[in-house]
Specification:
Blueprint: H1 43-53, H2 73-79, H3 81-87, E1 91-92, H4 96-105, E2 115-116, E3 122-123, E4 147-152, E5 158-162, E6 167-170, E7 178-179, E8 189-194, E9 200-204, E10 219-222, E11 246-252, E12 255-260, E13 263-268, E14 277-280, E15 304-309, E16 317-321, E17 331-336, E18 339-342, E19 360-364, E20 371-376, H5 378-383, E21 389-395, E22 403-406, H6 408-412, E23 434-437, E24 445-448, E25 452-455, E26 463-466, E27 495-503, E28 506-513, E29 516-521, E30 536-537, E31 552-555, E32 562-567, E33 573-576, E34 583-587, E35 594-597, E36 600-607, E37 613-616, E38 635-637, H7 641-645, E39 654-657, E40 660-667, E41 670-674, E42 687-691, E43 697-704, E44 707-713, E45 723-729, E46 736-737, E47 754-760, E48 763-771, E49 779-780, E50 789-792, E51 800-801, E52 811-816, E53 822-826, E54 829-833, E55 841-842, E56 851-856, E57 862-867, E58 872-876
Parallel strand pairs: 3-34
Antiparallel strand pairs: 1-49, 2-58, 4-5, 5-6, 6-7, 8-9, 9-10, 11-12, 12-13, 13-14, 15-16, 16-17, 17-18, 19-20, 20-21, 21-22, 23-24, 24-25, 25-26, 27-28, 28-29, 29-30, 31-32, 32-33, 33-34, 35-36, 36-37, 37-38, 39-40, 40-41, 41-42, 43-44, 44-45, 45-46, 47-48, 48-50, 50-51, 52-53, 53-54, 54-55, ...
Length: 881
């Protein structure tokens, strides 16, 4: 009997948008939802998902779709969720997060300091965890959170710009990292670049238009990047680029050019004061202050991707402009007749029509003899089940004529792991793109999509030097004694940033992706399949940019101390035992919400996405023996039915009863309850106790002593946004909707996203409510109201605003501490209200990072914070004062 196919979760990009600092842009065309993401997540299943999404809308959605004008309702539902929590019921004005950060930093601080829990190496290939849904042995090795940009110089200095955890510096060619941007009001990186004078430029605001892309606060420059750190005083220009994303920074003719989500801007590189100049915006009426600035489509109407400047004549410029899902303005533009004119011909094989110009990346050789470009096609993304990649192109001038040197079929045939219909190279080309040229050789090029590709002959031939996984290759082995068999280490999947630099006289290429930073010699070695044999992970534990959605804490069985776990963006579920020197990964893919038995930290329920729940009772420890004996699997798929029907949010709420850890509550369209605790083995063991109604879905759940609270939204975006609270019992009795005024009048619960409950452990009728988004001062939408924290003493029948001096910042999670205080997680850190007090204080000095969940230790003495960009932190409750 042949061994079963390796079961794993492929790390696909989440079909959901996030904002970090401000309003972000929804993702589209990622694979749709499906019945069960567990078990065999092979490429043919991903193909089926992809085909389900194909044809839902063309590159320009039909008017009758009734969504944001860019994608069909089904795709948009998944794409918008993170953003709508912060923007609904309307549009948020620029400057909201900046004002919130100033307010938070002005609060009085509590006593005590945060302890960094996850500040050690995180091994995605940890041989202890080779159960059915682990990605262990795939070959990515040590990982951290997503790197959006990379930069390097010839003195051994490397700079890694993370999606939500700031910019980090290495003096040793990679590794031994130090954060250099903690004092900035945005920790989201869009672009990094070293200019000719050796200065390091940072464009904040990640521009990958993905699941959790955060807007930024502008562009900053560091004159002495070998020694200095970024501060607010190092910002270039004024506030023109606040609340934007910056995808590229390019230099020519004494100027720096910035491709942003609000057009292309330029600034002098000599005089860093003065305002940025808006060079080109395709639809200026949609910019802040314009007549259509509050339109629901405003965020999509001025997206720019890259700039190519002729170094021989800096007046000759090409702009790559366009929203990746398609719009009439998509295309290439150049100066003509005193303005900017769309290029419609003479470009050769590189398309110029709006349907086939999406996300574009340029690269130029050091001697200026060759230019290269990657183009993602909106039409291809909408109609081709295999790939959204239009192609990779080469030219002697940015003005063409361009010649296609690769398409997705060619890349798939050159050693790629992505060879199955429905999931081939460039299937996520709107999200995964980088391009660079070896300074010593104009024909030596690195391209990044889901994988890393290399050509040494200008594109005549290609090698997949960084394949997606090792799983599909005959050299792979799950055997812990053999690691990945004879396969070499690969990079993590989903490529975003690239740089070439020198260290000790050797040239290296540095790549940034969803798993952090990796390097290899620029002219490195390959095996017979064209796979690199010399990748090194630079995620050595001195850098922690892990993006947690959740955290769980329980006593570590057989050891002193606790086991700490949590769900991560594209890096699975981490597990840290009390005596560990290295943190392992016991589940792969995206990790959502988490439940952990306080009495046994190896009893874990881990959510993937859309309420797909997996449970283990041994931390998912497994040596891979399940491959020959399925009965030896140590984790089980126990998803409730709303996962199958798709009636749950991307990160759906999951909670255990505070007084009975065997009773679990899960929220989709229905409120689900199961009473078997961690002994549950099937999704059929859940029972629906309440139907929130068609079009509604749970945003938060909590329970204590059998009393259940559930918050919902529906519709959940600005198009008729509505929210509510339902209350009932775990046994299915007494369920009813609470009457909440829709006007958002002062003192009442606003008409905004309800993100979390905190139940008083001594009294189930005493509960606090955390409210996301911004108040009406910033939000244009009906009933936006005021306040972020509300309290009820009568089981939710009535509520009062207890926000007091809390700044206007989105609130994500709350917990009543063991001493009767109240801790609140916000998009910019943690605040605390001491027992018997009404005013809020800032907890510690975390940088401007979103904290998405708070949990207490089993004894209630320690507060744990899951940050979305700087790992997990903890602080003793008694130290809060």
């Amino acid at each position: 009997m042949p061994a079963p196919t390796r079961s794993r979760r492929w790390l696909t990009i989440c079909a959901v948008t996030a904002t970090a600092g401000l309003v972000a842009i929804p993702a589209t065309a990622a694979p749709g939802r499906h019945a069960s993401p567990f078990g065999v997540r092979a490429l043919d299943r991903l193909a089926a998902q992809r085909e389900h999404a194909i044809g839902a809308a063309g590159p320009r959605a039909k008017a009758e779709d009734g969504d944001d004008g860019n994608e069909a309702d089904e795709i948009a539902e998944g794409a918008d969720q993170y953003a709508e929590a912060r923007t609904a019921p309307g549009v948020v004005a620029p400057g909201a997060y900046g004002a919130a950060w100033r307010g938070l930093t002005g609060l009085k601080r509590t006593k005590g300091n945060w302890r960094h829990v996850t500040g050690l190496t995180y091994d995605s290939d940890d041989p202890r965890y080779r159960d059915i849904d682990s990605n262990s042995s795939g070959g990515s090795g040590d990982v951290t959170g997503r790197m959006a940009a990379m930069a390097a110089d010839d003195d051994g200095y490397v700079y890694a710009g993370s999606a939500g955890g700031g910019v980090w510096r290495s003096r040793t060619g990679g590794g031994h990292w130090r954060s250099i941007s903690d004092r900035l009001p945005s920790q989201s990186t869009g672009a990094l670049a070293v200019d000719g004078a050796g200065r390091l430029w940072l464009g904040t605001g990640e521009a990958n238009t993905n699941a959790d892309a955060y807007l930024g606060s502008g562009v900053y420059v560091l004159s002495d990047p070998h020694h200095g750190s970024f501060t607010t005083r190092s910002r270039v220009g004024g506030d023109e680029l606040e609340s934007t994303t910056v995808r590229q920074l390019r230099f020519a003719g004494g100027k720096v050019w910035a491709a942003t989500s609000e057009g292309v801007w330029s600034h002098s590189t000599k005089n860093l004061h003065g305002s940025w100049k808006l060079e080109f915006a395709p639809n200026p009426d949609y910019l802040p202050g314009g007549s259509k600035a509050t339109d629901a489509d405003a965020a999509y109407k001025n997206i720019t991707n890259d700039i190519a400047v002729d170094p021989k004549d800096p007046a000759k410029v090409i702009l790559a402009v366009g929203w990746r899902s398609g719009d009439d303005y998509n295309g290439f533009y150049t100066r003509a007749a005193g303005g900017w004119q769309r290029i419609t011909s003479g470009f050769g094989e590189l398309p110029t029509d709006a349907d086939n110009v999406g996300t574009v990346t340029f690269a130029r050789s050091a001697d200026g003899s060759r230019y290269y470009a990657i183009d993602q096609s909106p039409e291809q993304m909408a109609t081709n089940p295999d790939s959204g990649l239009q192609g990779i192109y080469s030219a002697a001038s940015p003005f063409g004529p361009w010649t296609k040197i690769a398409d997705y079929k060619q890349l798939a045939a050159d050693g790629s792991a992505l060879t199955t219909a429905g999931y081939m190279p460039g299937v996520q080309a709107w999200y995964n793109q980088f391009l660079t040229v070896d300074p010593a050789d104009p024909k030596h090029v690195y391209a990044g999509l889901e994988e890393v590709y290399e050509t040494r002959d200008g594109g005549a031939t290609w090698s997949t030097v960084g394949p997606y996984w090792n799983f599909n290759f005959p050299c792979w082995s799950i055997d812990p004694a053999r690691q990945t068999g004879s396969c070499s280490q690969t990079t993590h999947s989903d490529q975003h940033g690239v740089a070439i630099g020198r260290y000790h006289g050797r040239s290296f290429v540095y790549v940034g992706n969803d798993g952090g930073a990796y390097r290899r010699p620029v002219r490195g070695s390959q095996d017979s399949a064209g796979h690199a044999t010399d990748w090194t992970s630079l995620n050595d534990g001195t850098i922690d940019t892990l993006q947690y959605y959740s955290v769980g804490v329980g006593r570590d069985p057989g050891h002193h101390g606790v086991a700490v776990t949590g769900g991560l963006q594209d890096n699975g579920q981490s597990i840290l035992r009390s005596d560990d020197k290295v943190m392992g990964s016991d589940f792969g893919g995206d990790g959502g919400d988490t439940l952990t038995d306080p009495a046994n930290g190896c009893d874990i329920a881990e959510e993937y996405v859309y309420l797909a729940v997996q449970v283990t009772q041994n931390c998912a420890v497994n040596d891979g023996s399940w491959m020959t004996d399925p009965a030896k699997a140590t984790s089980y798929n126990v998803a409730p039915a709303d996962n199958i029907t798709g009636e749950a949010r991307f990160i759906a709420p999951l909670a255990a009863d505070m007084r009975n850890s065997a009773t679990w509550i899960a929220g989709g369209r229905h409120i689900w309850v199961q009473d078997h605790g961690y002994a549950i083995r099937s999704g059929s063991e859940w029972r629906s106790v309440y139907d929130l109604g068609a079009g509604r879905t749970a945003t938060a759940v909590a329970a204590s002593g059998g009393k259940v609270y559930a918050a919902w939204c529906g519709p959940c975006n600005e198009d008729g946004f509505a929210r509510g609270i339902a209350v009932g019992n775990a046994d299915g009795t007494g369920w009813h909707d609470i009457a909440l005024p829709a006007t958002g009048a002062d003192g009442t619960v606003p008409n905004r996203y309800l993100s979390g409950f905190a139940v008083d452990p001594k009294n189930a009728d005493h509960v606090f409510l955390a409210v996301n988004g911004f108040s009406r001062h910033w939000t244009e939408g009906p009933g936006a109201g005021k306040g972020h924290v509300f309290e009820s003493a009568d089981g939710g029948a009535t509520w009062k605003d207890v926000s007091a001096n809390l700044p206007d910042v989105p609130a994500d999670s709350a917990v009543v501490t063991s001493n009767g205080g109240l801790a609140l997680a916000t998009d910019l850190g943690v605040v605390y209200r001491a027992p018997g007090h009404t005013k809020w204080q800032r907890v510690g000095s975390l940088p401007a990072v979103a904290v998405l969940q708070l949990k207490l230790s089993p004894d209630g003495g320690t507060l744990y914070a899951a940050t979305h960009g700087r790992g997990i932190h903890a602080i003793r409750v008694r130290d809060l004062g």
